[in-house]
């Protein structure tokens, strides 16, 4: 931890908070304090905003190839330091090292992807229908951005936002989650090393998010907000952004249905369930929340899933052989405990897990619940933990209606061997993404995002850079 920055990163310099405040970073596996980092206040946020605004004009004029090469160098540095970054992430967030290494590769790929997109920003030239004018279209950066990232994928959510902003020519103020500031600070150091000019990226770590972010959004100089987090916080930020008409993209909560039809390959379905449910200990907006299994195969699916979940090893993420690390904090674990208790009280059967272990850390065992009552709280709450809740269904129309009966619409999973059914059901699901016979949909080359209260806009893929660009139309008379 001694080499990891712990100060704010403003204007290319590492600085303490103006009032000297610091905040602890805890290890969720032990509850012990790893270190203290600077705890920014409104004055620090204003300085970071100043730096981003001052750097914007020159950065916007920087050649696309220059921006591309900076991202490419940052990608290579991240790959070279995979183990170092993985250990840092596991320390502050808890995920097993194998998963942390996977996230490092995933995070780095956003920089490689957008390094290639940086040189493909195009416009257009056409004669308008009346023949009087030519239409010249150009695309330019939207301007200084506020990027707010969550704690569950602390490195990848940073690169997924920073990558397209750098490629588009936008400057940034990044506010990472207070639980996991170290990954973002390490990322800032890597970008500085890769040649990112001073002021283009500024990082303010803080426990005072409201005091820091609201003035930036209402002030009118920040022109873009990109937020990943809960729907409730997203709704608040949208309201704050309205006054200055700040452009927004929101990746919010999920309540993913996982649908297993009677003709599904159960081996594929259980494999998919393990990924969709247990990636990141279930602390993912894409996590399968509601398992709808056809009545004819529900018992066998539940038995197989329980066996697989029971075989997982729970412990500190740094320990060899561990599959499931701790949850992020005691508040997160208490939420999972309460949701499971409510489901059991309403008649759910616990096939495996369901009891909080004694001892230090924020651990909760992989849990499978069968015969879950549809009125249980975990049916309309993002669990964010290693709990699979199984319900049965009898026909296609019924399960689609139940799957769509939620204000969220991020991702859905469908397991069937019938092509017609696969396409028909996928098209009827009210979600932004569908995993068809797979439990993993996230990929830097694919557009990530949802519908309804799961968000606005898309991250990643060819469209990811669009969130950071504006069109300008120039009318040129035809002589």
UniProtKB/TrEMBL annotation:
PROSITE patterns: ALDEHYDE_DEHYDR_GLU
InterPro entries referenced in this protein's UniProt entry, alphabetically: Ald_DH/histidinol_DH (IPR016161), Ald_DH_C (IPR016163), Ald_DH_CS_GLU (IPR029510), Ald_DH_N (IPR016162), Aldehyde_DH_dom (IPR015590), Aldehyde_DH_Superfamily (IPR050740)
UniProt cross-references to Gene3D superfamilies, sorted A to Z: Aldehyde Dehydrogenase, Chain A, domain 1 (3.40.605.10), Aldehyde Dehydrogenase, Chain A, domain 2 (3.40.309.10)
Active site: 251
Protein name: NAD-dependent succinate-semialdehyde dehydrogenase
Keyword Amino-acid biosynthesis in record: no
Keywords: Oxidoreductase
Pfam families found in the cross-reference section: Aldedh (PF00171)
Family the entry assigns: Belongs to the aldehyde dehydrogenase family.
Domain Aldehyde dehydrogenase: 14-472
Annotated source species: Streptomyces shaanxiensis
Xref: SUPFAM superfamilies: ALDH-like (SSF53720)
């Amino acid at each position: 931890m001694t080499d990891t920055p712990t100060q704010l990163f403003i204007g290319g310099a590492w600085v303490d908070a103006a009032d000297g405040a610091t905040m602890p970073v805890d290890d969720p596996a032990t509850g012990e304090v790893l270190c203290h980092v600077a705890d920014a206040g409104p004055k620090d946020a204003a300085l970071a905003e100043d730096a981003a605004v001052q750097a914007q004009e020159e950065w916007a004029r920087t050649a696309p190839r220059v921006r591309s090469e900076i991202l490419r160098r940052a990608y290579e540095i991240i790959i070279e330091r995979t183990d170092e970054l993985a250990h840092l992430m596991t320390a502050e967030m808890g995920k097993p090292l194998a998963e942390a290494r996977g996230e490092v590769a995933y995070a780095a790929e956003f920089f490689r992807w957008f390094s290639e997109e940086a040189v493909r920003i195009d416009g257009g030239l056409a004669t308008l229908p009346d023949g009087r004018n030519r239409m010249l279209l150009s695309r330019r950066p939207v301007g200084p951005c506020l990027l707010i990232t969550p704690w569950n994928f602390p490195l990848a959510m940073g690169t997924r936002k920073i990558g397209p902003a750098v490629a588009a020519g936008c400057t940034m103020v990044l506010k990472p989650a207070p639980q996991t500031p170290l990954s973002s600070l390490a990322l800032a150091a890597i970008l500085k090393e890769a040649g990112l000019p001073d002021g283009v990226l500024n990082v303010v770590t803080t426990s005072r998010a409201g005091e820091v972010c609201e003035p930036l959004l209402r002030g009118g100089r920040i022109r873009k907000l990109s937020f990943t987090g809960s729907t409730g916080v997203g709704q608040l930020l949208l309201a704050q952004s309205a006054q200055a008409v700040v452009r927004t993209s929101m990746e919010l909560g999920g309540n993913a249905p996982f649908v297993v039809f009677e003709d599904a390959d159960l081996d594929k379905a259980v494999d998919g369930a393990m990924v969709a449910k247990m990636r990141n200990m279930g602390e993912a907006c894409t996590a399968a929340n509601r398992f709808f299994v056809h009545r004819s195969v529900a018992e066998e699916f539940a038995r197989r899933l329980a066996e697989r979940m029971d075989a997982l090893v729970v412990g500190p993420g740094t320990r060899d052989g561990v599959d499931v690390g701790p949850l992020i904090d005691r508040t997160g674990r208490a939420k999972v405990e309460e949701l499971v208790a409510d489901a059991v009280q309403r008649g759910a059967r616990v096939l495996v897990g369901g009891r909080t272990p004694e001892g230090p850390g924020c651990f909760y065992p992989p849990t499978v619940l069968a015969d879950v009552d549809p009125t249980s709280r975990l049916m309309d709450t993002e669990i964010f933990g290693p709990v699979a809740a199984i319900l049965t269904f009898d026909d296609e129309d019924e399960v689609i209606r139940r799957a769509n009966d939620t204000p969220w619409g991020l991702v859905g999973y469908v397991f069937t061997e019938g092509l017609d059914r696969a396409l028909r059901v996928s098209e009827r699901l009210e979600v932004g993404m569908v995993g068809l016979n797979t439990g993993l949909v996230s990929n830097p080359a694919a557009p990530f995002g949802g519908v309804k209260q799961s968000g606005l806009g898309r991250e990643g893929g060819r469209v990811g850079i669009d969130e950071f660009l504006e069109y300008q139309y120039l009318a040129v008379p035809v002589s």
